[in-house]
TrEMBL record:
The lineage of its organism: Bacteria, Bacillati, Bacillota, Clostridia, Lachnospirales. GO terms for biological process: copper ion homeostasis. One of its GO terms (cellular component) is membrane. This is P-type Cu(+) transporter. The chain crosses the membrane at residues 216-239, 245-266. It comes from the Bacteria. It catalyses: Cu(+)(in) + ATP + H2O = Cu(+)(out) + ADP + phosphate + H(+). InterPro entries: ATPase_P-typ_cyto_dom_N (IPR023299), HAD-like_sf (IPR036412), HAD_sf (IPR023214), P_typ_ATPase (IPR001757).
Amino acid sequence: MAGAVNQEIEKRKITISPVKNFNALPGNGLLGEIDGVIVMGGNYRFISGHPADKEELKNISDKVSNEGKTPLIFAKDNRYIGTIAVADTIKEDSHKAVSELKKMGIHVVMLTGDNERTAAIIGKEAGVDEVIAGVLPDGKENVIRELMKKGRTAMVGDGINDAPALTRADIGIAIGAGTDIAIDAADVVLMKSRLTDVAASIRLSKSTLRNIHENLFWAFFYNTIGIPLAAGAFAGLGLTLNPMFGAAAMSLSSFCVVTNALRLNLADIYGKRKKIE
């Protein structure tokens, strides 16, 4: 966004005065001094806390929010001077990704710092089940903590502010194109940065866990019969195992387990195969 503002400044050939005493307030806005005058910018919650034109600010904020945009309001010497409307466009695969998760029986929640009106419009467009808006950067972890009380929770994020929540969740999933901090905090990283890979990673995890259970069952069943037979436990019944066949049987056991594990390469993690009813 800063880049877009600078481009507009250059386009309009506006002279920029140096900023003194600059202060960034996470989740609220920014504050600084230009030519001896205090200038501030940020969300309605932050700006309205100062003796500016509150009624005008409220009307502007509501108007921009109703259009599905996030208002960034600016004031100079405690007087309103302008607003930048930021449109949060969702990724092309967002709706499909959410749809796939819902088909898997997963409750999808959108967690955002945007105001409720803007978040509701974006959430409806994406098709999520629930929208939690107005969350400050340091409050995401607390929200995840509350959601975890209702069941196992996975968090998907890509920003610096998402890192604590990614760490807190049962499973943290980071977008590959996100910040290094978010990637380091996550358990899973989507290298291709596709939201549809969230559902794919869950399918792969389920297939892997099922494969592990199959291999454990096979190894337990095979050895429960093979080891006593090789040790001569059934010799009284006339059942014995030649050591050469025992060695071959052991190799066959390992071969079966490895072959079954390789079946994961054929797993339908993107759900493209149609089920036969």
